Amino acid sequence: MANAAATLAETAEHVTVSAHANGFAAEIGGVNLSQGVSDSEFARIHQAFLDHKVLVFRDQPLEDAAHQAFGARFGTLDGHINKSTRQKNMPNVQIFSNVGSDGKTTGVHPEKGTLVWHTDKSYTATPSLTTMLRSPAIAKEGGDTLFADTARAYDALPEATKTRISSLRAVHDWARSRIKSGERPATEEEMAAAPPVDHPIARTHPETGRQTIYVGNHSSHVVGMTVPEGETLLAELEVHATQQQFIYRHKWRVNDVLMWDNRCTLHCVEPYDAAKEKRAVHRVVVKGDKPV
Ligand code: OGA
Ligand code: MN
């Protein structure tokens, strides 16, 4: 019996992985994130993360400290470029919320860039590996988070397009991304902290080796093409990648923890009534590799 128990603990078979029919996104059960995860539990969660790209943990009433600790299992944490979103005493936890200090809605969705398809921090040299959200307040109508599987979308590209993009690089630009999404313009300090960078459009996932389409709202134009030509190509690739068959729609419940692989997905929030509905997410981001 002792041996059987040890084996169970080592392989963490009590951790359940329920994937969606097409394999994109999975719900993880059998863990209590507020108590932290063992090495074997982490190994199983990490494999599920690579296999399914988006993970959902239901019924996890987490404090910020435990949320941050779980994020840190995946790597080095990263603060948000917009410093006003950072928790004062825990700057690696960020809050996107439309609830004011008076407890009423502000009427404004924070960070409008989240309403359009993007992959987190692609405007930096080492963009986010994963983003992990939890949801103290959810909208009753709208406010779902949508994900597109950019590895499956890459596989479905015509061979001619794969060849065409194989050596192309896109410029990713925080300041321009803010203008496109209608946010307040980037400050001088933010622009200095995040100057434009370029990344391959066909990105190789560093852990799975799969090719992905690495575009989204932070991508601005294509190196070696006129701006309009590059914009057209990036828009075509985004439209392709965000077709219905590549999408997982996350319908929030209070105390969900939702994490995704930014290296092989795009995401956005569906609009909701920011004057009527309270919506708040706490967020922890793990830094990733330089895209290749
Ligand atoms: C993010 C983001 C989506 C959401 O935190 O990076 O895009 O559902 N948020 O709030
Ligand atoms: Mn995002």
Strand and helix layout:
Elements: H1 2-11, E1 16-19, E2 26-29, H2 39-52, E3 54-57, H3 64-72, E4 77-78, E5 94-97, E6 128-137, E7 145-149, H4 150-155, H5 159-165, E8 169-172, H6 174-181, H7 188-193, E9 197-200, E10 202-204, E11 211-213, E12 219-222, H8 227-241, E13 247-250, E14 257-261, E15 265-269, E16 280-287
Parallel strand pairs: 2-3
Antiparallel strand pairs: 1-2, 3-14, 4-16, 5-16, 6-14, 6-16, 7-13, 7-15, 8-9, 8-12, 10-11
The structure holds N-oxalylglycine and manganese (II) ion.
Manganese (II) ion (MN) is lined by residues 114, 118, 120, 131, 267.
Structural commentary:
- With 292 residues, this protein is an alpha+beta fold.
- It has a single domain, classed as Clavaminate synthase-like (Double-stranded beta-helix), CATH 3.60.130.10.
- 26% of the residues lie in helices and 25% in strands.
- It has 8 helices and 16 strands.
- The strands form 4 sheets. Strands 1, 2, 3, 4, 5, 6, 14 and 16 form an 8-stranded mixed beta sheet that branches. Strands 13-7-15 form a 3-stranded antiparallel beta sheet. Strands 9-8-12 form a 3-stranded antiparallel beta sheet.
- The protein is globular.
- Bound molecules: N-oxalylglycine and manganese (II) ion.
- Manganese (II) ion binds next to loops.
